[in-house]
Write a structure and sequence with these properties.
With 736 residues, this protein is an alpha/beta fold. It folds into 3 domains: 1-241, no CATH class; 243-473, Tandem AAA-ATPase domain (Rossmann fold, 3-Layer(aba) Sandwich), CATH 3.40.50; 481-657, Rossmann fold. It is built from 36 helices and 13 strands. The strands form 2 sheets. A 7-stranded parallel sheet has the order 3-4-2-5-6-1-7, with helices on both faces. Strands 8-13-12-9-11-10 form a 6-stranded parallel sheet, with helices on both faces. Helix 17 links the parallel strand 3 (344-347) and strand 4. Helix 1 (2-42) packs across helix 5 (88-108), helix 1 packs parallel to helix 9 (199-211) and helix 10 crosses helix 11 (228-239). The longest helix is centred in the first third of the chain and has 41 residues, at 2-42. The chain is globular and about 110 Å long. This is Superfamily II DNA or RNA helicase.
């Protein structure tokens, strides 16, 4: 009886889950079909020539009004045959080519759920998904265990049927009786094992969760906005249209990818579901042991790290260390507590040595900073199950003490995970220094000549220790990202301030001259217009600048009223304590309508999630393109449900224009070696140019253009004392 009841519970759960999944598919069907139709209606009929290698003559077809592939399919063979000059053979070829395009679109088109325009069909989809998301990972684990249980119990119950009554056993032959008795024993053992593991309660709870719908449509939509990444992850899984396998696996060589695929990943200590590419990333870390996870910003590197920690904890490992900038220490502790069952202890602050002693004794995940790590004793072999180094590009300089400390710890840990969305900035050599901390053999194989042969060769060489995926390849649900360069003519007042900065040879003053006289600032006027427009549309805006005094000017200007009553938060600068930074971002996100967050790009462009913002303003171009990539990715990341508009404020004819032009090579280098997988060439200039050299060249060229001389170029003025940049966690003092 116990076995039959357990089997019925497992079957019932499978049915409940199947119905929940089918409800999602039923709601998704019309939305997906409509998206396919819109895509086909946007494809010009001339594309059919590409598929047929130019064999079709489509002039008359277009003249008849059938200008898109969608219209051709809608018209069908009969209507097409009525077009003058179109014969049966042409009709057959057109229909065949159009159907091939339709099949391709059907497989690749992504469904986007517009949170600002809830329609009945999207509401039905969100409410159907809500059931599965709300049931959570526990329900998914219960369904998987129910399937295994059913597979084992079903045959045993069938074999044991003669044992259900004395008469049946008497009538059964000896062989059937023996099999029945053996099956009864097997059932008893299986049920005892399941009851000891608490499986009957898990199955019952999962069924209850799957049958409990949202209280209202509003509740489902609200939850979707808070946890859209989980909704889209389930949608991709159920629809059977996940991102391309090669892209999701970072275009790794086949032998490495296969080893990673076979790596088991235990989820018993984890409280969050993983996207397919995230599960692959966690398996990569486990299979390769010491690696760099270089996923583009916004793809959930933290979640992948937590998945690895949870797996190792399930295997019996007890001690782990996460090293990160102070600005994201609070974020790490929050994420580990929310996403796993692991104990977290902060190894930072005045009591850090007492906390370290407690961590040594009781175990858990110790979260600390680069500076604090230097004060702790290096662990013995096998003591730390995993060393996680967040924002690992902070330790790319092998001469810096923080880099040496991290290298020493990595050497004494059997597993190490370096995380960075920007492993390459100006020099391939700096990336090699990170690799050397993990695998000296791979690092030694990367000569300068090899690095310059192209990104495919480079990526293949570092594949044993490096995995990177891009947003565009794996997050097909991300809303659009529209980037606009806002070129402004400097006012007479701006020009005067700029000439004074050029005459002084002060590169940093040149960069912020457009804001020095707020009353007649062309950039500031445009910024106010952008913020006002965003406020009128109920959107939140984050304003980034390298300079604290620029943020001060912007804050005063917005406080005067152009934000249309939207509250202004910040400025979030390097001098704001790490915990306070996260609270500022949380308060900004909590405002129900428009709001503005002012943020110093080096202090806020790393680690903090700002997806509440759908408008981003960059007050000036940055010396390092990666700073801009990071800042934009704070908003345009997994979990964002609205299109993101990025406005970069630029002044014509001066330092901004020269910086944009000179930095194009830097961006191409980053794309070729760290972001893209296509073959690309990098010029020596793009590799060798330094920030100081760039500043010197720009100052000299501007002095020559304007015919001014003064104190001479002061290109080295890139430090905090001169430029007003906050100390922040990413001001690299190891070279100053």
């Amino acid at each position: 009886m116990r076995g039959a009841r357990l089997y019925e519970a497992a079957q019932a759960l499978a049915g409940d889950h199947g119905r929940a999944v089918e409800a999602v598919r039923a709601a998704l069907g019309p939305i997906h079909d409509a998206a396919v139709q819109r895509e086909l209606d946007a494809i010009p009929v001339a594309r059919l020539q590409d598929i047929t290698e130019g064999r079709l003559r489509l002039g008359n077809v277009e003249k008849s009004g059938l200008r898109t592939v969608g219209r051709v399919l809608e018209a069908g063979p009969y209507r097409l045959r009525q077009v003058p000059g179109v014969g049966q053979r042409t009709v057959d070829q057109m229909i065949a080519a159009a159907r091939r395009l339709s099949e391709a679109v059907h497989e690749t088109v992504a469904v986007h759920i517009d949170v600002d325009r809830p329609e009945p069909d999207t509401t039905a989809l969100v409410t159907a998904l809500h059931v599965l998301v709300e049931a959570g990972p526990d329900a998914r684990r219960a369904v998987d265990r129910a399937a295994v249980l059913s597979e084992r119990l079903g045959p045993l119950l069938a074999e044991a049927r003669p044992a259900a009554g004395r008469l049946r056993m008497l009538l059964a032959g000896r062989e059937k009786r023996d099999r029945a008795l053996a099956a009864v024993t097997g059932i008893r053992l299986l049920v005892d094992e399941a009851e000891q593991a608490g499986l009957p309660g898990l199955l019952a709870q999962a069924s209850v969760d799957l049958l409990r719908g949202p209280s209202t449509d509003v509740a489902a939509w609200t939850d979707f906005e808070l946890r859209s990444a989980e909704y889209y992850g389930l949608l991709a899984e159920i629809s059977g249209r996940p991102p391309g396998t090669a892209a999701a696996e970072g275009f790794l060589p086949d032998e490495i990818a296969e080893r990673v695929r076979t790596q088991h990943l235990d989820d018993s200590h984890r409280r969050v579901s993983l996207r397919g590419y995230q599960a692959f990333g966690a398996r990569f870390v486990l299979a390769q042991r010491k690696v760099i996870l270089g996923d583009e910003m916004g793809l959930g590197k933290t979640i992948q790290a937590i998945a690895v920690l949870a797996h190792l904890a399930a295997e019996g490992q007890g001690h782990f260390v996460v090293v990160c900038p102070a600005s994201v220490l609070v974020n790490w502790t929050r994420e580990i507590e929310a996403r796993s069952a692991l104990r977290v202890i902060v190894l930072h602050g005045p009591d850090r040595h007492d906390a370290f002693a407690d961590w040594k004794e009781r175990g858990g995940v110790g979260v600390t900073t680069f500076d604090a790590l230097r004060g702790f004793p290096v662990p013995g072999g096998g003591e730390v199950g995993l060393l996680v180094v967040d924002e690992a590009h902070s330790v790319k300089n092998p001469q810096a003490k923080r880099s040496q400390t991290v290298a020493l710890w990595a050497e004494h840990c059997e597993r190490a995970l370096f995380m960075t969305g920007t492993p390459m900035e100006n020099r391939v050599a700096e990336f090699r220094s990170l690799v050397r901390m993990l695998d000296s053999g791979v690092a030694d194989s990367l000569g300068e000549r090899d690095a310059l042969t192209g990104s495919v060769a480079f990526r293949k060489a570092v594949a044993p220790v490096y995995l990177r995926r891009n947003q565009e390849d794996v997050l097909t649900e991300l809303p659009s990202l529209q980037q606009t360069d806002e070129w402004e003519e400097l006012s007479a007042s701006d020009e005067e301030a700029y000439r004074e900065a050029v005459r002084a040879g002060n590169f940093m003053a040149m960069r912020r001259a457009a804001y020095l006289r707020p009353g007649k600032s062309a950039k500031l006027d445009r910024l106010r217009e952008i913020v006002r427009e965003a406020g009128e549309n109920g959107q939140k805006t984050v304003v980034f600048s390298l300079f604290r005094d620029v943020l001060g000017v912007v804050g005063e200007a917005l406080a005067a009223g152009p934000a249309d009553g939207a509250p202004v938060f910040g400025p979030l600068t390097g001098s704001v304590p790490a915990g306070r930074r996260q609270r500022i971002v949380d308060d900004f996100a909590a405002v129900p309508g428009p709001a503005v967050l002012l943020a110093q790009i080096q202090a806020a462009g790393v680690g903090l999630n700002m997806q509440a913002a759908s408008v981003v303003v960059l007050c000036e171009p940055q010396v390092k393109p990666t700073l801009e990539h990071q800042a934009v990715a704070r908003a345009h990341r997994m979990g964002q449900v609205r299109p993101v508009r990025v406005h970069r404020l630029l002044a014509t004819g001066g330092v901004d224009e020269r910086m944009v032009r000179m930095l194009e090579d830097k961006t191409r280098l980053f794309d070729a070696y760290a972001r893209r997988s296509a073959v690309a060439e990098a010029t020596p200039d793009a590799v060798d140019v330094s920030d100081t050299e760039l500043a010197r060249r720009i100052v000299e060229e501007e002095q020559a253009r304007l015919g001014v001389t003064g104190g001479g170029p002061r290109s080295g003025r890139l430090r905090e004392a001169d430029d007003g940049v906050g100390a922040g966690p990413h001001v690299d003092r190891s070279r100053t």
